[in-house]
Every structure is written in C-alpha cells, then in structure tokens.
Amino acid sequence: MKTPFGRREIEEIIPHREPFLLLDEVTEIEPGRRVVARKVVREDEWYLAGHFPGRPIMPGVLMVEAMAQAGAIAVLSQEENRGKLALFAGIDDIRFKRLVEPGDELELTCEIERLRGPVGRGKATATVDGELAVRGTLMFAVTDGA
Fold this sequence. Notes:
With 146 residues, the protein is of the alpha+beta class. The chain has two helices and seven strands; from the N terminus they run βαββαββββ.
C-alpha cells in the first residue's frame, strides 16, 4: 500500500464512518506489523461541545479508540483479513500523559506484537508534537465482517 493515504482509503479497510471515524490519514504502514496515522482535533468535533463547555478536551476513551482504529488498519490491511472486523478483546496499561485540545494533531502508532489466529495484541501510542499523550496495550479479535 502506498502512503500517505486519506479517509477514502481508510474506509476501504475499516468499517468506521462519520462521526466515529477518528483518523484523517495513514502516513506509514507495514500490513500486519505497524501503522502510523494522524488525527487533527478540530474545534467543531461533535464531542467537544460537552467535554467540557469552556474547556474543550478530547476524551481519553476516544484517544484509545483512535489508537485502536489505527491498529485495525495494520491488521485488516493484510490480504487474508480484508473485509473482516477487528474487535476489542482487552485494553491494558493505558496511561494518559497530556491533554489533547482543539488544534492538536495526534500521531497514532500501533506496533502489532502478536497475531495468532484471530487474536492479537499491539502496543499503541498517541503523541502531539512528539510529546506522549497516551499509551497502552490493545488486544483484539479478528472476525468475519457483516
């Protein structure tokens, strides 16, 4: 796959759509091994109006979801997994290190550590300008799509 690629190509790999597609671009990919993606947090994001009024901050759970979507691209870009779903099987050791605000650009990296049959695990990070925002380990199960 040639990088960078945008939302149209992302939507060919994972089933997420607006308003829940949390990636703008994939900048690096090694199918089944590693992915680097980015997300610009815009002032008009649907979740910022209520989180929090007067002090908008991207919710931590959505940062974790964005990392998971990036990881899903790494796994589902493999030819044998095309058209399938990657579902959460677990989340470990998540640590939040900085706030993410409108105007910030998240760089999301997921390194697949293990993929045995339909179950796998990846180490994921999200950074802003090289500063760690969140990190953790994501477990997933690959299953047939709809």
